[in-house]
Every structure is written in C-alpha cells, then in structure tokens.
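FYI - complex with 5-amino-5-deoxy-1-O-phosphono-D-mannitol, inputs then prediction.
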Amino acid sequence: MCGIIGCAGTRDAVPAILEGLRRLEYRGYDSAGIAVLDGRAVERRRVKGKIRDLAEELRLHPLAGVCGIGHTRWATHGRPSEDNAHPHTDCGGAIALVHNGIVENYWALKERLKAEGHVFRTETDTEVIVHLVEKHFRGSLEEALRAAVRELEGAFAVACVSSRDPGKIVAARNGPPAVVGFGQGETFLSSDITPLLHHTRRVAYMDDGEMAVLTADGVRFSTFAGAPVAKAVETLDWEPAMVEKRGFAHFMAKEIFEQADVVRDTLKSRVSLDSGRVFLEDTGLQPGVFRRASRVVLIACGTSYHAGLVGKYMLETLARVPVDVEYASELRSRDFVMDRETLVLAISQSGETADTLAALRLAREKALAVLAVTNSPNSSMARAADGLLDLHAGPEIGVAATKTFVGQMAALALFALAFAQARGALSDGQSLELVQELQRVPHKMDRVLGSAAAIERAARRYLACEHYLFLGRWINFPIALEGALKLKEISYTHAEGYAGGEMKHGPIALIDEGMTTLAVVPRDRVHDKMLSNMAEVQARGGRILAVAFEGDDKAGMAAEEVFSIPETHQLFTPFLTVLPLQLFAYHAAAAKGLDVDQPRNLAKSVTVE
Ligand code: M6R
C-alpha cells in the first residue's frame, strides 16, 4: 500500500520521481504528490487522483530541484484528498515527508504534539511523523528522524527532505519495503525495484530498524540506534523492458500471455526429464525437512490462498501428507496448533503482505521450518524464512495477480513432487510420468491462450450479466474461487466461487436466467458430479458457460459455450482451466472501459493489516 520514491543528485529530480511514481502506481492510486528542495525552500505539488493528474498539475505549476521525494497513496487514515496526499510538511514548512505503512500510536502522539503547539492540517497518521521530526530537529535531519522513529509504533517506510539540512534524503524502515539504488552521480530510494531499473541495476535493500542517508555522492546506512551498517550492493538481473507493456493494451493482458513461460522458467533446472527427479536444493531447505514433517501448513491471502488450495490437493494426492491451508489473517487471530513437525509454506507474490508476513513470523517464533514461496527473492518474507522457493515470474504490474498465481501453482507442484519423492510415496515410473507431463503443460497453455479471441467474444456477449456463480470441484474448486475473484476485482461484477458439491446447500436458490454459472469441468475424478451440477442449473433455467476438455460432448450439451482446453493429468488441469477464466474477466473489464491494471480500492501489495 502506497509507493514512495526519492532521488538525490545534481540534475533536476522531478522527471525521475514522476516516472518512478508511474511505476509504483500499482501500490496505490487515490492521490499523489512530490516535494523537492529548490535551493531555498521545500516546494511541493499534490493532487487527489492518479499520477497523470499529478503530471498535469506539474505541467501547469512546474517544480524543479535536485533532491526530492514522491508518494502515491492508498488511503488508510483520512479520505483521498489533496490535503491528505503526501508529502506532508511540518509547521514551519521546512521539512517534507512521505510514508508507507501505519502509525498505530498516532492518536496519542497527535494529542501530545498538539498540546505542545504543533498545528495539524490533515487527517492522516503520517503527519505526526513530520511534526516529530520538526520537534527533534537540532540541525541534523538524520538525527531528528532517528529520534522520531523511536517514538513510533507500527509499520513504516519513510523518507524526508529539509531545507534546513539540504542535499540529502533521510529514510527509515520498519516493515514496508525500501530499496536503495546507486546511479551515476545520483542515488534513489524506492518501495520496489521497478522504478530503479531505468537508472541503475546496483541496489541495496534496507532492513527493518535501519536508516539511510542518500546524497548525490552515495548512501550511508545505520541502525535506529545509530550504529553504522555495511550493506552488500546487489546487481539486478531484471531488464527495463520487463516493466513495459510491449504492445499489449494492459499489463494484465501481457502477463496472462507470459504464463506459459512462467511455468517453463519455474521448472527450469529443477526437474530431470530422464529420471523424473525434482531438485529443490536452490530453496536452501535442509534435505531432512521433508522426511521430518508430519504435516504441512500453507498460509496466504487472496489469490495466493487459492494457489495454496491447489497445492494442498497436489500434496495430499502425491505425498499423502496432511495439509492445512489458512488465511494468514485468520490464522493470526486463532489459537492455531502447530507442533514441531509442522512445515510451513508462506505463499505471496509480493513477499510483503502484512498478514502473511506476521503469520510467517509467528511460525518462526515457534521454531518451525518455514519456506517462502514468492516472486520477490529480496522481500521481507524471503528474508524471514528458512528457505525460498523463487517463482522466477518476472515483474507483475497488473494489480490482479495472474502469472504469479500460475507460478505459485508450478512451484507447489514441484514442492509436492519433491516431498513425495523424499518420502518414497511415488515410484520412479510415476515420478517420470508426472514430470514429463508437467513439462508439456506450458505448450498446452499456449494452445489455450491461442483461443483468446473466442473468449473475448464470449465476454462481450455476456457483458450485461450481473451475477455469476463459478463452480468447481476438488482441484478445480480453487480455480472456481480464483475465477470469481478475478471477475469481481477487475470488472466489478458480482461473482461467487463455490464447490460444486455445496451448490445444493444454498446457492441453488439463486439460479435463474439472471445468474450465469461458469462450470469448471475437465475430465477428472469429479467430472460426472460436475455434469450433474450443470444439469441441475440447466433444469432451473440458468445459463451455463463451461471450461472443459476438447471434445467433451457431455459438457458441450449442457453449456451455451465451452472454452476448450487440451487434456492433461488431472492434477495439472488448474494450469489450463484458469486461463479462460482470467481472459474472460480481463475482456469483460476491458470491454467496460475499466482501469484493468488498477482496479478501484485495491493495491498490489497489502502491507497493512
Ligand atoms: O502479494 P500477495 O500474493 O501476498 O498478495 C495477496 C493478495 O493481496 C492478492 O493475491 C490479491 O488478492 C490480488 N488482488 C489478487 O488478484
């Protein structure tokens, strides 16, 4: 939630900050602002709205300065408005500050600061930080921020500039991510690496409890206590072109079409097509972990939770191990029982989701082995876990997760196979057959993506439909959930995902001509039961769309339209069944002219609880 960016150098920083905000906009997009040191004073421009509105404001009222900070907001405290947009300033207007996170004790701090004479102009929690910096300022912005963060409770990545201590950006991190980039005669601070790629590949990740002072000459790191920190500088292997749309109308479309390659990349060097063995040594997990684990717990939120459910069915079938999948937010509130033999997987594309990170830490406190399954190898989760199962999906910019979902399923398929092999649950022949079929899956995915035009036509035909019921059973029940989530979040259409077997227990009452059922019905162990579900919907006048294997006449007879997929092993059908559902949601949203990549009220990385 929220993106922060800073640039300290010798040329005008405003274009780089504005461009950086465009790339961070997926993190929040209800208001935005920039503050720079123009030589004499702190100047800022802020707007309610998107980065394009900020760009227009800057066109009308230009700003220039060699050192500055920017922010794109996802509101937590205070409605989206120009007043509440960051950067916020102190009473004297000499300090400007941006913040990602939540200050939990802001109310008590605000009351105290008000009593001391500070004047507040916003409804935000963030404003207390800038007044604290003002209060503690004795000539050094670094020391003032250091004193301020010691009084804060909650999560924060902050950056500030001041005309009273010019030429530098001072930043602090406790929770939300912050990465520093080293350019030629300039340095950068950002919430993630995507804005940095166009300036430099050399980066260093701030850790919790650390501060950084950025100038044109370099960056100095220290702890909140003031001890110097020596940081390793890493070289990024992402290309700038990876964060461009490459001719697609939206990032989401581009990312949907990259999915077969994501599976190829996730499998690369991790499977042997001769022996069927799976190698997960790169995760850093100790080899004995699989043998010792008597239970697996998968924790995640949103789409990652759905990937976890698919993983559960794979693990149960292949490794015969008990598996629980838990919403991270719920697990944290419960008296959840985890014993020493429990192996925990935290699944998150961003690696920063606050609830998943907190649940991961809870498991670590209980001394359990934790594997982070993420697309962000330098994220908080990757750092806090014992091992990392990296998705290699490349940057995902669309707020709706697509290719990372498929990457997570591929990673979990490998994990399930490795787990089963370590416990002797699969014969060599079974392993080989499964691994060879998994390797064929990307090619089959490409074939499904090749039928995108037909799915687009169907999505346009059904545009007037306001209610959808997505039905699936067993390993495609999570795909029904995911299909419904995609349609909801980007096209704002009411959609519910249900297990086919549950239909008779309530949702069947909703079936009429105004409700379209989207049945996920590949030929698997529950195929006949799904056909019965479809017949029940048909008998009640409901409209049906289906995702089914090519040549499935029975599914074809019940449905108005069938999105066909090639046959594959029943455990791998989710790689194929999810594609028409993603495309259907995408085309429905695009046809309505909605902001597909930045749906209302959502943010890519949910770093608040
Ligand atoms: O970064 P994470 O995978 O932890 O994010 C979890 C959810 O916030 C995320 O999947 C969310 O549901 C997306 N909007 C789904 O498209």
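The radius of gyration is 25 Å. The CA atoms of residues 137 and 144 lie 5 Å apart.
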